[in-house]
Amino acid sequence: MKKISIVGASGYTGKELIKILLNHHLVSISHITSESNSGSKLEDVHPEFRNMTNLVFEKYNLEKIVKDSDIVFLALPHGKSIDIAGQLLKHKKMVIDLSADFRIKDSVMYEKWYKVKHTQKNILEKAVYGLPELYRDKIKKAELIANPGCYATSIILALYPLIKENLININSIVVDSKSGVSGAGKKLDSMYLYNSANENFLPYSVGSHRHTPEIEQILTQESKNNVSITFVPHLTPMYRGIVSDIYADLKDKKMDTEKIYKIYQKYYIKEKFVRLLPIGTYPAVKNVCCTNFCDIGLSVMKNTNKVVVISSIDNLVKGASGQAVQNMNIMCNFDEKMGLL
Amino acid sequence: MKKISIVGASGYTGKELIKILLNHHLVSISHITSESNSGSKLEDVHPEFRNMTNLVFEKYNLEKIVKDSDIVFLALPHGKSIDIAGQLLKHKKMVIDLSADFRIKDSVMYEKWYKVKHTQKNILEKAVYGLPELYRDKIKKAELIANPGCYATSIILALYPLIKENLININSIVVDSKSGVSGAGKKLDSMYLYNSANENFLPYSVGSHRHTPEIEQILTQESKNNVSITFVPHLTPMYRGIVSDIYADLKDKKMDTEKIYKIYQKYYIKEKFVRLLPIGTYPAVKNVCCTNFCDIGLSVMKNTNKVVVISSIDNLVKGASGQAVQNMNIMCNFDEKMGLL
Amino acid sequence: MKKISIVGASGYTGKELIKILLNHHLVSISHITSESNSGSKLEDVHPEFRNMTNLVFEKYNLEKIVKDSDIVFLALPHGKSIDIAGQLLKHKKMVIDLSADFRIKDSVMYEKWYKVKHTQKNILEKAVYGLPELYRDKIKKAELIANPGCYATSIILALYPLIKENLININSIVVDSKSGVSGAGKKLDSMYLYNSANENFLPYSVGSHRHTPEIEQILTQESKNNVSITFVPHLTPMYRGIVSDIYADLKDKKMDTEKIYKIYQKYYIKEKFVRLLPIGTYPAVKNVCCTNFCDIGLSVMKNTNKVVVISSIDNLVKGASGQAVQNMNIMCNFDEKMGLL
Amino acid sequence: MKKISIVGASGYTGKELIKILLNHHLVSISHITSESNSGSKLEDVHPEFRNMTNLVFEKYNLEKIVKDSDIVFLALPHGKSIDIAGQLLKHKKMVIDLSADFRIKDSVMYEKWYKVKHTQKNILEKAVYGLPELYRDKIKKAELIANPGCYATSIILALYPLIKENLININSIVVDSKSGVSGAGKKLDSMYLYNSANENFLPYSVGSHRHTPEIEQILTQESKNNVSITFVPHLTPMYRGIVSDIYADLKDKKMDTEKIYKIYQKYYIKEKFVRLLPIGTYPAVKNVCCTNFCDIGLSVMKNTNKVVVISSIDNLVKGASGQAVQNMNIMCNFDEKMGLL
Known about the structure:
Four copies of one chain form a homotetramer.
Chain A: E1 2-7, H1 12-22, E2 27-33, H2 42-45, E3 57-58, H3 62-68, E4 71-74, H4 81-90, E5 94-97, H5 107-114, H6 121-126, E6 128-129, H7 132-140, E7 144-146, H8 150-164, E8 174-179, H9 194-197, E9 202-203, H10 212-223, E10 230-235, E11 242-249, H11 257-268, E12 274-276, H12 285-288, E13 294-301, E14 306-313, H13 317-331
Parallel strand pairs in A: 1-2, 1-4, 2-3, 4-5, 5-7, 6-7, 8-10, 12-13
Antiparallel strand pairs in A: 8-11, 9-10, 11-14, 13-14
Helix pairs in contact in A: 1-13, 7-13, 8-10
């Protein structure tokens, strides 16, 4: 039985993490922290947990957490994990960070996009990008996991075989993503009011979304080429879910849907959480909602020699807390699906 | 005072048309027809019209309609307008057809995409594609208007200046469109049940949507090149509205957002219903909902030399009934905005 | 042509008011004020107004408003209208106040429910409760209108004939109301975030909603009895609309649906904006959405001798800005429906 | 390990049942039947099940089901369970019927409300109404469970202590219920199209909903008085969830919220799935969504001497499939919470 603590547990990813971990048979939750809610019972902040657990929000206390935890999840806002991760690693705790703080290896790049000084460059090097389908072996041995962004997960999984097999022109990639409103977290911004988001659909951060450097870093690394993407995310009137449509120019005009499909099968046939859909069918948010699955459908457009790959995940599960638990399972040598299926 | 009839008035576009025309000061509605609802009062089928009008659905009767109408709107399913338009034109009525039956000049192409025999090829030639921002002069003199499809409207208006000025590689065009559920009309299909569409988002007709030939026909005609597009439409959990994101490779690497913006201004500054948004701002469905506006925002991605143009319309207004009334206003020499603003 | 100003125009009711008044042929808007948005163009705050008007938000300036206005609408938060109304009345302006500040005749009651000191008790007396179906004659001669609350409008119109004709036990009234989220205005409260309100439904202010004293005051006045109601409002996952279900014990066991229906007909047959639905049919929010109508359906339950009356309005139109314009039309001797149908 | 079959598994309750049972450690699913989908893999009909199970829909085959099942769930339309339940009971199978076919003891009443002839009156007598909080002891020994209706569950649990303790006037009960659209099942009816149900809210079956006799039967039985209720259900724009507001006249004017609360505590303190909320707080659909909980909040209105009890459940879980599994757990002597928490 592994002991778990969650630092910053009062946001959406924290809540989702608690839900998943309460159903996981090989772990128990020792501490959940929240600066704003400390002292309150979880069930008073989130009444859905009534009769399910007696957890109480505490202030962050390094000593207590070190004493009672084997694994610590950080579900803090960007910038807030850096030092805490440093402290916990010193005490030999496994750390899974759900923020962006350890995703970008180039600290200058991180500081440019997140406007935060990176004070732990030495442990930045050790951090493993927690996308199990690409980096399972490294995750097994990791001390610190940088859990991927939600858009990044949906986009990298969809592009990986194309990139790895060198099938597309590297700068032709267009990514048109759509996310439910929970992607924004609990921010009190008028854009996320019901009255703004409902019956609305809109692009935002056009060409400037913060997941861009993380995606380009992984694609560059895997393709051995300098990848730049055209990325437009959109806000969709639903709670959960992401669909990413990816368009790219095929190098070889003789490529067709069947051939690409076989390549994707090679990559994903053994993956429990990536579901390659039958040719001619495509993902829908409803089918992945509240699960750790990433569904992928694809097609080659013969008229324009473009390939279209469409993926869908639940941003709060495979795009955040579910993937974090998948990483924990790998690190702890548990069945990778434990608590997730 | 012009007399109007609407043939096939019980669907969504018919209902929207009635609403707009009841507020139009220079027309009156003589007849509304519906085979399934004939004999019923409009207010009994759509209780929202109670206290607003005493219209009653009738069966289609050529003689009556000819007698009492100057202009006839056809809001029938695809395939059903062909012969009726033929009859009405013989009686010198102005006809505005909201179906696809007269949009595609190549009848073989029409028959391939719509699986219907085209029996009025002679009048197909006369039909004017009713997109006022491109074809206002022809519309003025038209007898028969082929009112554009909703996706087609949002896409052609967004691409027109790029195409006309020869700024992009013609086969690099990617169109990622999102539509509210009303785009599907009143079809009793399980895909359109609340329980299917709500909290869901999904692509459909990937690379095979019926508006494709209509869009490619106009773009080909205006660019004087054979245009093929990569087009993926999506179903969005909202009632009304379309957002189309268009991506294309710029021919000239020195193009930037400001230059493209100026070109768009040249095209649209005088257009009442196309609103070019300030640089750095983008359309949102909420801003065009229930209006005849088409909002457009654009940006050049310097890293990939792609231009992104994003447009938004209300599919039931500028994408159907509002545009039909705009066409009527032009044909009748009314103020083009009458009843629409 | 009457000149209009709107004080506090950046909220939902202000926006709705501008929309209605831009389509009203006998008025023009001189000033719109907003402390937080002063200096901004309306179209920059609400891009939906682009190409429709050049209005700019200004700070409130009594002199300017007095100079350029015949009628002034106050769409301010509760408590903020009191002194401004006083100033404007001194300058002989007609004032229509959309807040609660002049609805409750008993200033002690007002202060208890709204936690605001009432400093204009003398003009409180003059204020006319702006429910045209009950008080049209008084409205004609009014200087100051207290525009009713949204719930109050839906409840009083539904109960009025029962109360006036003394048909029910006065303390048996149960009101179960449901409102869309726009009822809360633009408040940045986590309860109104998309992620809280979507796919949720909940009661709030159980037995303690601020519209209670206003409703009880009118019912008491019209019944000549001291009326207390049991009132539970609910938040519904939609933008606009209210449905109020009202249950009461009939005094006479021989009453039936037909008899009650005839009484309601007597009261409402001539009313343009109250639509009594055919027996066996009931209101739905979709049918009144974006209109100034109040739909009413009713039934007598023979098994329990209770009458059920169900009403529906659009909270932003008949529940706020539409009713304010209806009041203006009456005060100005315009056609009561002008701009509203 | 108990073997399970589900007859009529392609509807919403069938799908929900499969989901719950796949996560239940002490059962395995042998057969799922569907006349319309027989021969199809579950994952092809509901792609969300891909990678989770290899179940295939079969035609109903008594012999096979008898051979491979200990317990059979019937998730058929009303009227279709009667004979199948009869066959299965003859073969000594435990049967849990999710339809209304065995809920109403008076077969004449059943036939009147459901327009179906009841051909198994002898087993109707044996059927136990599967509301564990009231009838746990009978359920333990039952062969045939009539699983309660969704509205009935939310209403009976909310009223039970009041009725049992004889606290209210028996014919003063008003029930105003609100349900998400999934309550209607997969019916292809225009009322349940996204375009009809979205941004709409409406009453239906006013005073005539089919759950009425089932509710009145249980209340009558428990109160030993002839109970008639005033019941108005409503359709709410959300997928899942019911809120029932119940109003009744208290017999004793000295009753207050605290006293009633203590009585409810006595009834429900030991119940795992009924959560009595702290005084001053009320249920919200979000808190019970996808769970087997029934949340209850209550208040006494001193001004009118009425008690208001508000309950909320997920209609597909505690209102259908979750409660069915709770019943199975009791019948099989499993932990009552197994698979449900």
